[in-house]
Each structure stands twice: as structure tokens, then as C-alpha cells.
Design a protein that fits this description.
Layout: E1 3-7, E2 12-16, E3 54-57, E4 69-74, H1 88-106, E5 113-120, E6 132-138, H2 143-155, H3 159-170, E7 174-177, E8 181-184, E9 195-199, H4 211-231, E10 238-243, E11 256-260, H5 274-279, H6 288-302
Antiparallel strand pairs: 1-2, 3-4, 4-6, 5-6, 5-10, 7-8, 8-9, 9-11, 10-11
Helix pairs in contact: 1-4, 4-6
The protein binds zinc ion (3 copies).
Length: 303
Amino acid sequence: MSERRVSELRGEEVVYAVQRQERTFLPARDHCPLDATRPGGPATEIPFPAFEIAVFDNRFPSFEAPDGAAEVIVYTDDHDASFGTLTAARAEALMWVWRHRYAELGARADIDYVFIFENRGVEVGVTLHHPHGQIYGYPFLPPIPLAELLADERRGGCAPCALLARELAERERIVHENDAAVVYVPYAARWAYEAHVVMRAHRPSLLDCEPAELSALASALQRLVRGYDALFQRPFPYVMAVHQAPTTGLHEGHLHVEFYPPLRTAEKLKYLAGSEQGAGTFISDTLPEESAATLREAIARGA
Ligand SMILES: [Zn+2]
Ligand SMILES: [Zn+2]
Ligand SMILES: [Zn+2]
């Protein structure tokens, strides 16, 4: 079981999940635990000879009932695929799976915040290459969603709505858009190629989206990720974070998906060092407008 402690100095929770030390670390290609189970072969996490999308409890959970949840979402049984290479239909189906998990986990009394995310690439600590994401059901409201709710309070209205309006007015940081979603490098991006995929309409969560909006969201996410891969012609590492309303019923939110890629050039990683770790201030050597121009071209190439 994991243990939670509050850091008094920072006013934040820290989770000790020591059992995670034992988790599978970059297994050989033919021992992938996220593959389908081949008839007569060793059992994987998914006891079926084929599957489309699979969701199950993380065997090495950071949170577990009755104090939260940790789930794994496998996007496909094709080990060598990625979110960007899924068919449009599969990517759209994934949005419905996300929505279902948000509803089901969010209905639990022990879960205050449902966080859907993907870590891609060894650069962000991935231990399994098979295309998959994760969901944590936090038994508290974590600091970043909380900071976004405080931005709403400070501005006296939905901050993502206001920031999106600014991006649409200025346009220079927008890298892609469709009927329902707009993708831009934010005005004050921390990472060189950070991008936010924001619903045009005020939608607190996936549950508030029309089917066409879920389809458009999937499309925008895929276009961005393919653009990332085209940027340096290599699989592009990132952390993908889906931000939605907390499930306490006490707050709103505005569905958006943030990407934090650690690369600043094809070979160079951005490290969180003195200023970022010790003072909490990001120092970036790229202007968001310049990154946006480069990323816009890459998205056109990657289409
Ligand atoms: Zn696999
Ligand atoms: Zn809004
Ligand atoms: Zn956010």
C-alpha cells in the first residue's frame, strides 16, 4: 500500500509507492505485458488473443481503493503503434473510453480528481514502450488543477476560455485548429514545444462534450502528436496531461489537454535544474512564437 504525507513547507502531498520499485522495466520485445495473450503463450496483462482498447488496474499502483485509483489504458494490441498512428476511429473510441473512466472513477466518493495522462519516451521515464496511457484517481485535488481553478477565481471567470480568446485574437501561437478544438503554444509556455489542445466551447469535462466534439478532439490530438514526430523526424517524447473539472462537484473546469515535451532540439533535453527546482521559475531559451511557427510547419508535414 502506498503512504501519503503532507510536506508542511510546500503545502503539498507526497505519495510513497514503494511497491513500484518492483515494476516491469523495459521488458524484451517478446515479453511485453501489454500485448495480447498469444494462444498457448505466456499470459500477459490482457487475457485475450486480440483486443482494441484495454483498461485495467495498474499492478503497481500509486493509488488504490479505498483511497484512489490507478489504471492503465492500452490503446491497441499493436506493440509498434503510437497514439499518432492509431486509426481515426480508434483515437475517437479512446475519447469515449476516457469519458467512461472519468464518469465511473469520478462517481467514487474516495476520488476527487480523475487525471488521464500519457508518458511517452524513455526521456520522461517510460518503462513500457507499448502504446498506453494511465489514469490516476486522486483522493485529493492536486496542485496543478487547483492552480487552474485559482486562475478562474482570480480572473472572475473561466481562465481557459479567456486565454483561448486571446490566442484566437493574436493567432501567432496557434498551430492547428478544427471545429471543436484549438491547438496552440501558450503565451507563457514553460517547455520549448509545449502545446495546449483546448475545447472551443466551455466544456468542463469529457462528459459535457457532444460526440462530434470528441471526434474533433481526437483528431486535433493526433495531428499535434504526428506534428511532434515530424518535427525532428523521430518519436517525440512528451507528457500528455488531460485537465478537466474535479469530480467533487464543487468546481467547474474547462477540458483541455497539455503536452510537455522535454526536447528543445533534436538531441538536447531541457533539464529541470536550479531555477526550476529551487525557485520554481522556468528559464526557456525559445520564444513561444518561434516554436509555434516551427511546430505549425511540422504539423503540416506530419498530416
Ligand atoms: Zn507490447
Ligand atoms: Zn471555459
Ligand atoms: Zn491545464
